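User: Here's a chain of 554 residues. Predict its fold as tokens.
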Amino acid sequence: MRDVSQIVGTQAPGEVPGRLRLDRITKVFGSLVANDQVSLDIDPGEIHCLLGENGAGKSTLMNQLYGLLQPDGGQIQIDGVPVRFDNPRQAIDAGIGMVHQHFMLVDVFTVAENIVLGREPGTAGVLNLRAARQRVRELSRRYRLEVDPDARVEDLPIGVQQRVEILKALSNDARYLVFDEPTAVLTPQETDELIEVMRALRDEGRAIVFITHKLREVRAIADRITVIRRGAVVGEAPPSATESELAEMMVGRAVSLTVAKQPPRPQGPRLQVEGLTVTSPDGVVVVDDVSLDVAGGEIVCVAGVQGNGQTELAEALLGTTASNRGRILLDGADITRRDPRGRLRSGLGFVPEDRKADGFVGSFTVAENLVLNHVESFSRRGVLQLGRIEENARRLTEEFDVRTQSTTTSVASLSGGNQQKVVLARELSRPLALLVASQPTRGVDVGAIEFLHQRIVAERDKGTAVLIVSTELDEVAALADRVAVMFRGRVVGVVDAGTSREVLGLMMAGVPHEEALAAASVTTAAEEEARLEAEVAEHVAELTGHEPQEEQHG
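Assistant: Prediction complete.
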């Protein structure tokens, strides 16, 4: 095994210059095989997409490449030479940079301080901030990642914080860049900008690894696609592969990526939220004067970049987070002062954002979890009716296709999709006036998403009011009858389900609905004009036999 400093400029005979290879990498946590002899070639000048469901082992694999974890088997090679990274510093020295899904920035530091952290310019222990700022400006101009070097990170929008993460990796002259689920917290416009940045880096000769579970993005950017399922490589796919083909590789069977549903039949408002305001423990207003109605028989999706008050809104509806002002009415009754149990008894069903923390008790059995929030219905004179609990579990596991060896199996041992089915089955097992589901398919495989979406639509069709909180625009587009967009705690607007992704993206960045419509129409007109110009140029070229020339500007 060679020292990192010895591999620069070295190349084994017959190797692709600059190739980084993961050779039969294996990583085990107890009885879980997270990576099972994974082999992967990462070449300069290429965007290599690593596609797989949440929990497939993608991030674990890349964390070994970055020195955060060490393989239990296999090896990493650069230019055919085996290397070992015991920590991220060694990986960085070898030219590897990583843009993490959860940003590794110090919030109270400035952009410049974050970017030079660990490699601070200066002498005699004195930090040269002027040099640090200049480095940020140079990188910002070069890669069109505009950011203020003196801005404090905690004051920056999420999209700009990601630019800082990218600049930090580039400041170390990374030859291999890993982007781990980078679009999870971005608007569609910010996602498009990131894709352009990755293309520019690729064209510069850098190797890009793009980790994602989003099929649309893979097809938009990939030069090569490797699919991982349950910790193992199941094959490669060309960028021309359809979303359905990629989904089948991810899951191992054919799945439907569309939600079959009839037009809604609204029956009048069942949920009415009036001027709701919630303040965080440190005094920040996180839900700001929100008013919103949801009718029976319709699905309203709350869209927005994570961290704009959606979580607190959902928790305020359940009553686990107290509101400062406003009212919540359910079927005309004021439930604002009721505790969570009282709201559940009023007909509210709740699927929490973090199922492991708030949705079930992992050490409890499937049967026990299926009666957690209405156990009094299964007891007589304080004695649990175990036979009825077991019968309830058998019925619901069959109805909701919960894959479990037994109803006495602990929920912690189930897959993420089956855990979520248990939570949803429990909430839908009683008559509801309102279902609130926060990130209902987060960390769930594509096959389970298909089933969960079908059940949510079926609940709508029973006349229940359904409020979905989701940061996934594909999910919003699939489920919503109306969309409420939140930005910094406020509802920017409520729009029809057919509203374009571009308009929704602008609203997610805080642009009011009318302005977003106007901006989107201008962009559409410009794109159409550019398309027509290209068609005319191509036609002229066919007639004259000359290639179209780029316009020269003097």
